[in-house]
From TrEMBL, chains A, B:
InterPro entries (alphabetical): CblAdoTrfase_CobA, Co_AT_N_dom, P-loop_NTPase
GO biological process per UniProt: cobalamin biosynthetic process; porphyrin-containing compound biosynthetic process
Tagged with keyword Transcription: no
Span of domain Cob(I)alamin adenosyltransferase N-terminal: 1-25
Protein name: Corrinoid adenosyltransferase
Source organism (scientific name): Thiothrix unzii
Pathway assigned to this chain's UniProt record: Cofactor biosynthesis; adenosylcobalamin biosynthesis; adenosylcobalamin from cob(II)yrinate a,c-diamide: step 2/7
Pfam family, one: Co_AT_N
């Protein structure tokens, strides 16, 4: 096939593709607050939530972030997003649950953290709420999963919520509008590369 | 099992987990510039890259972003990250390839865009470079994939690069340090919800 034929074929194929995509955009006409669940073992669940924080701030939206497991406060995400005037940032963890090794303490910490989230989930002024690593608190039974799901369902209708963490439950997936499952195809960590600033923290 | 027994068992299980994790952290002692590939059809490839932009800026790193397909400049990501002093933001596309329907124009646009990336990939001052939606340019043959992969391999050794886009090739995955494949389990778009500010743009 010569270049002219190649270019013509490309034009025709893309015109068909455009017609399909335009039709699907025309069908998608609703606006609503979305519940997004980012799960799986791969790289990019929290990063993706933080990217949406940036996007939202770019549109002048008010954002609240709850980090449920992390206790360190020297991360790049907090240093950067935490200082933005429209972004409220809370580091609510005691460290990973294998650091504390104390289930009662983890439950108390989780419940204190959830109270912060509850305040955001009942206030329509927060247009995006990130509940980072929430799945662990649900899966370990540190929070009452039914109650948490009810509170998510009853949030202000235009509020977006992003939940991150491995092993999101079936019930959480069902409630969500968008679910992305991030597979860990390959990770530098397994080749002996430590967590890198800017990438992992 | 009563609560005391439950708590003890938890403590023992978590102590074992901590020992395993500590050992694996001790093994991961290298620092290097990572090549991350975020691919798959699910939500969160570009968002995740932008989250790493935020993290990097939080550590005072210099960041360069090339958006290869997008032509719109009203996105939240550009409004927010583009104004940060350590972040250089380039919207290099003519729109999606089904918008232009012109293969020769797409090739010319891609090559002009790649020249911007080349400047970053040869300058160690850029500590993170995001090549957003690069895979499409490679998969459509708008850029020479072998040459692009060579240039990625030869970049400054401490420079992190994040490549996003569907259908990353086997060769690109092989070159990468970290590969995350984001599966589209569920997407609000299919329920008729339009792209939402803060979440999708």
């Amino acid at each position: 096939m010569n270049d002219t034929a190649k270019n013509q074929r490309h034009q025709q194929r893309m015109a068909r593709k455009k017609a399909l995509i335009d039709a699907s955009i025309a069908r998608a006409d609703q606006e609503k607050g979305l519940l997004l669940v980012l799960t799986g073992n791969g790289k990019g669940k929290s990063s993706s939530a933080f990217g949406m924080v940036g996007r939202s701030l770019g549109h002048g939206m008010k954002v609240g972030v709850c980090q449920f497991l992390k206790s360190r406060t020297d991360t790049g995400e907090e240093a950067f997003f935490g200082k933005q005037s429209d972004c409220e940032w809370h580091v609510l963890g005691d460290g990973f649950t294998w650091e504390t090794q104390n289930r009662e303490q983890d439950i108390a910490t989780s419940q204190r953290g959830w109270a912060v989230a509850q305040r955001m989930l009942t206030d329509p002024a927060y247009q995006l709420v990130v509940l980072d690593e929430l799945t662990y608190l649900l899966n370990y039974g540190y929070l009452d999963a039914d109650q948490v799901l009810d509170e998510l369902a009853e949030r202000p209708p235009m509020q977006h919520v992003v939940v991150t963490g491995r092993a999101a439950s079936e019930a959480l997936r069902e409630l969500a509008d968008t679910v992305a499952e991030i597979a860990d195809v390959k990770h530098a960590y397994r080749d002996g590369v430590m967590a890198q600033r800017g990438i992992d923290l």
